[in-house]
Amino acid sequence: xxxxxxxxPGTPSAMRNAFGTVLSALILVLxxxxxxxxRLFSVIKYESVIHEFDPYFNYRVTQFLSKNGIYxxxxxxxxxxxxxxxxxxxxxxxxxxxLTAGTIWWVLNAINxxxxxxxxxxxxxxxxxxxxxxxTYLLTKEVKGSGAGLAAAALLAMVPSYISxxxxxxxDNEAVAIFAxxxxxxxxxxxxxxxxxxxxxxxxxxxxxxxxxxxGYTFIINLIPMHVLLCIVTGRYSPRLYIAYAPLVVLGTLLxxxxxxxxxxxxxxxxHFASFLVFIxxxxxxxxxxxxxxxxxxxxxxxxxxxxxxxxxxxxxxxxVLVALVASSPTGGWSGxxxxxxxxxxxxxxxxxxxxxxxxxxxxWPSYFMDINVLAFLVPAGIIACFSPLSDASxxxxxxxxxxxxxxxxxxxxxxxxxxxxxxxxGIALSQAFDVFTxxxxxxxxxxxxxxxxxxxxxxxxxxxxASSGKADKGEEVAKERLSKKGKKKERExxxxxxVKSKIVKKKALVLPLEASIVALLLLIMLGAFYVIHCxxxxxxxxxxxxxxxxxxxxxxLHVFDDFRxxxxxxxxxxxxxxKVASWWDYGYQTTAMANRTxxxxxxxxxxxxxxxxxxxxxxxxxxxxxxxNSLDVKYVLVVFGGVIGYPSDxxxxxxxxVRIGGGEFPHIKEADYLRDGQYRIDSEATPTxxxxxxxxxxxxxxxxxxxxxxxxxxxxEIGKKHFKLTHFEEVFTSHHWMVRIYKLKPQKNRIRGRVKxxxxxxxxxxxxxxVKKNPWM
Amino acid sequence: MTMAINKKLLSLLLLVSxxxxxxxASFSDPDSDSDLTNELASLRxxxxxxxxxxxxxxxxxxxxxxxxxxxxSILLFFDATQLxxxxxxxxxxxxREFGLVSAxxxxxxxxxxxxxxxxxxxxxxxxxxxxxxxxxxxxPHIRLVxxxxxKLSDExxxxxxxxxxRLAESMAEFxxxxxxLTVGPxxxxxxxSKAQISVIVAMIVIATPFVIxxxxxxxxxxxxxxxxxxxxxxIYFFSVAGTMHxxxxxxxxxxxxxxxxxxxxxxxxxxxMQLGAEGFAVGFLYxxxxxxxxxxxxxxxxxxxxxxxxxxxxxxxxxxxxxVKQVVYLDNWKTGYGIHPYWPSSxx
Lengths: 778, 348
Known about the structure:
Chain A: This is dolichyl-diphosphooligosaccharide--protein glycotransferase. Chain A: It catalyses: a di-trans,poly-cis-dolichyl diphosphooligosaccharide + L-asparaginyl-[protein] = N(4)-(oligosaccharide-(1->4)-N-acetyl-beta-D-glucosaminyl-(1->4)-N-acetyl-beta-D-glucosaminyl)-L-asparaginyl-[protein] + a di-trans,poly-cis-dolichyl diphosphate + H(+). Chain A: Its cofactor is Mg(2+); Mn(2+). Chain A: Its EC number is 2.4.99.18. Chain A: It is a multi-pass membrane protein. The complex is a heterodimer. Chain A is mainly alpha-helical. Chain A contains 37 helices and 13 strands. Among the domains of chain A are: 135 residues, no CATH class; 187 residues, Rossmann fold (3-Layer(aba) Sandwich). Chain A is globular, with a radius of gyration of 31 Å. The N terminus of chain A is likely disordered. Chain B is built from eleven helices and six strands. In chain B, the strands form two sheets. Chain B has a four-stranded mixed sheet, with helices on both faces. In chain B, helix 4 links the parallel strand 2 and strand 3. In chain B, helix 10 runs antiparallel to helix 11. Chain B is elongated, with a radius of gyration of 31 Å. Chains A and B meet through helix 16, helix 20, helix 21, helix 22 and helix 23 of A and helix 7, helix 8, helix 9, helix 10 and helix 11 of B.
């Protein structure tokens, strides 16, 4: 837009420029609408509910925040979870998402728009994905001009990988964090291009917001130092680089340390050490450049030896200190999740709780096609476009794509970080390709007519013709993509105008054959159309299921399975408010949020021993399990069972992790006892330990009454032990489709109770020492 | 808490077992037993990482002719040189791990416990009769012969597949479980020895000034854009091909067809898994389209000859659309997702 001011008003190019600005603003608004509305499938197909597991916790925290205010929230000790330990919520949660939604809710209420907290939470993610696509526009514009920016923004608005984490209702940290990530990168690049301290300060604040929002901020604080180092090593050091980096490290680290969950980790854990090391290096380099400026070349050579040797010594000392720090801290200073990125086999070897989560698995090639679709084809072209010519900004996006694509290869979850990079790269590639092809067409059409005056009109007509031919067989979104291409042409030309005219002439000579260009253009548009179809399909079919309500389409119509909410409602209506409910950790957040009952473990897997205790109880025989649960004051045990309707992610399928995690802490649980030929089986081949463990019994109790045979539709087999009675548990609730079953711990038998009373009168320690023997939980 | 109890329990068990072994030793002929033990110990001290190489003679001497409550257990590794070429059996790798367990056991034990367990191996070509005696007809096979094992064909001491799945660590667990002896944490030899590390550090220190000088002059390989470009493209190819998946899951390049051993399976149907060759093929398809596009927009525009441009573009377009089609087809085949557009309902 700077070009607008430099040109005298009233000239045709200024008019075109203004028109282009308005047009691209309009396109950006449409992109925002697209990003928001493509994420509403979940609300339309299901209803306006919070999805899955973690969002329920965030929702509960937001409710607390909106009810009690920020100070109460900051000091909140939650006694409804991790019983009997509890959890300090204020100090263990990334508050960015909660504060954002809380603020939105507060503002809306202040201007008399009475939305419920739940509604605000449901729609936070779609709103922020619109912001994210605008941020992508800004970032790509800094790298390769606004044409590429518009294309990248349109691609990001509907990239499936990002949709999967930001559909309406998916109220999780990533929803706001991806916006924060892109915006931080934009401000970094902006600072790098302008050298302005104003943007550098904004950058630190954006980084602070990112730290508040998501643990993935470590990606930023490692990527930016890497880029700085890369610039230094390739001889691209400039004062702008210094201004972009040094304030970010100082202010950013200070601000990050303000977030309770990060705190002193911001200077103590080795994820952050790279930034400090580069901080020192950039100062050494800055000094060298400064001295170079004030000395004659000869003197400089002498000085260089001196400075380099001193700098080396300092660096070596710092490295030694860092190494010592890293070595002295537990796990070498690297947290398990980060270590599993560097040594991919680390997690699967040593940390079952990380290996057990499906989103920590390495992806196969179809995952890329599912999550970034045709962008996977365009990225290499984008990388090459960034190298011609290579600037500070374009080298940053190249580094970004390379790092994120590597990390996404290790952990499928990080595909989310790759998606913006892939969109930026593909936007650049598409924009360049459109530029060349439409440029060729335009040049040849105009040279055929040999009329300079018609140049402008034919420019507009040529792409429009192609576009209208494509319009017939694709959706609205492609039109937007086309628009973006048009907007880009308008924007790009003024940017080139100030440069010498001969350059334009030279560029015009670089053309491709007319008919081939038209075909290529059509193919590219078809590729874009396919992308749109895929994204809409993915948003509608693959990523919109809230997983709290399930549906299935069969020949006799649509079936809705609302068993989860049914049973949480049962719990909240039929049990005492202080009763403790035990279940596998997956259902912890939902139980506290929807049933308002105290749970033993939940999805915040901070205490492995506690989880292992529950795993041990689930894998133990009934009596031992009863003792463990009783020692934890558990009243009810909740299991999720999919055998009746064929719901595959039920507790029996998760059972191997209960055994593995339980066995990791309590060695009397041995995985081998549950395995037959290396497999968990529940049919007639199952091991006796398996058939006697609590999980088997709670899932399959009375199961044979459903169909008379006991046929499990998930495992596709008849179960091994069909008729048995429960001795220490009683069934109190089974949901409509048997998906959730709740059992109550039977009270102790009279005989035992009498003995306990007697013993209690004598000595209070007698009972506990007896139960301790078999009970791993002490 | 539990750890402490475990340790106490363990020491108690050790005490009990050593007492019982003393008791049993007193019943059998103590002289010949201690002779055999001493002989094994001396054999062990002469062999690498303490794994004794036994043959038919040794087996009969230490296991068959000795009376059953032997004062020692033997963990026997069955090896066959002729099968070393079959990599899927992992014989050599397991043998190395076996040696590691043995070395760790030697390092962590001294005194009476040391002579309770001996690590031995026998080789198929030189001791076929022993293989028959043990009833071993499939490798890999590791068996623990405890002091009380009377019949060699008794397979209760066999180590399961799962027991050496995690290599030395799980072998050690197996040994600790069965013999009640402690092996301790496995001590793997460091990747680089201390001398090597110091040499490398010294070289780096010496080289740094020269490197910095070159960096300041701007003449290193690092200043070559083409290197960075090809590196970036390569990492991209490497990742989208799912190579990390193949490394972590240790996937083979291809499989043999179960129904027809002569046929090779290169593509695995089902989205959770992929084969090596499959990943590289699709990674290539992913990459080639972008490379061709970049070639056309960056290089081909500079070519003057119109017909060359036409020809190259034709080839590029055909190859690109083929690659995209192939990936779409393969993805559909592999995952079974039916992607479809949504038309306005009034159109139907």
